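pasting for ref
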Amino acid sequence: MNPVTASSKPSVFSVFIASTKKVLKWLLFLILLFGAIFIYWKYFYTYSEGYRAGLLQKFSSKGSFFKTYEGEMILSSVSSNNNVAIASEKFYFTLSNKALVRQFDTLQGDNIIVHYKQKNAVVFWRGDSAYLVDSVKFKR
């Protein structure tokens, strides 16, 4: 019997190791793929988009390391005779369009309409709110 041909046949252990490595590589690839899809869906996918109208109550720059522009609007559903909001809800947002900062600074106390995009979750460098405002109109 030739020792070269007898040793060329792989052992059961080496076949098992090779197949296990192949399965682990595919498993790692699938975990990374699903992780990337989840991160995109959770932090970057636009869940909803629309308009909100109300009174701009607060607008400020805040943050320790990443400065963002945060705002607060009062959305009134019922007004009294003197145009004072009786039943109201607050709408917290982050300004995503930095070109609008000067405009928002001058609009505090005015009724405005903002266009927003809502993300599923917040990332720390983008602000405190899942609502990202990208444009503003004056409410007439």
